[in-house]
Design goal:
- The chain is an alpha/beta fold.
- Helix content is 43%, strand content 22%.
- Strands 2-1-3-6-7 form a five-stranded parallel sheet, sandwiched between helices.
- Strand 4 (55-56) and strand 5 form a beta hairpin.
- Helix 2 packs parallel to helix 3 (61-71).
């Protein structure tokens, strides 16, 4: 059975590119453009991994991460954001909340590697 990934981002273009890339890699992909939609998908079709943007129109990305961790405590969450963080900040602060961090400025290959690291191919 294919591993299921939930992509959360309020930018349609980002969702489409990531969905295509991850589908080509053999994953089953669901998308959500808001925190509310992400919660609904996670409850009805629990994913094996979640990637979320930090800045969503309807919610703070960290708030969504905390809600997802309560709902699905064993599911890894990768933060995919345009915000750049100092590596030390990521290690000290974000690592307690998320399983990984990938900048939107990074090559797509970086996200694919991070996904494989957490749930395999």
């Amino acid at each position: 059975m294919k591993k299921h990934i939930l992509l959360v981002d309020d930018e349609s273009e980002i969702l489409e590119v990531l969905k295509q890339a991850l589908t080509l890699e053999g994953y089953r992909v669901s998308t959500a453009r808001s925190a509310d939609e992400a919660r609904k998908v996670a409850k009805s079709d629990p994913p094996d991994l979640i990637t979320t943007d930090l800045q969503l129109e309807d919610s703070d990305g960290f708030q969504l991460v905390e809600q997802m961790k309560l709902l699905l405590p064993d599911v890894p969450v990768i933060l995919l954001t345009g915000m750049l963080f100092d590596p030390n900040v990521v290690e000290q602060s974000l690592s307690k909340k998320v399983s990984g961090y990938v900048s939107k400025a990074s090559p797509l290959k970086s996200l694919l590697e991070e996904v494989r690291r957490h749930i395999g191919a």
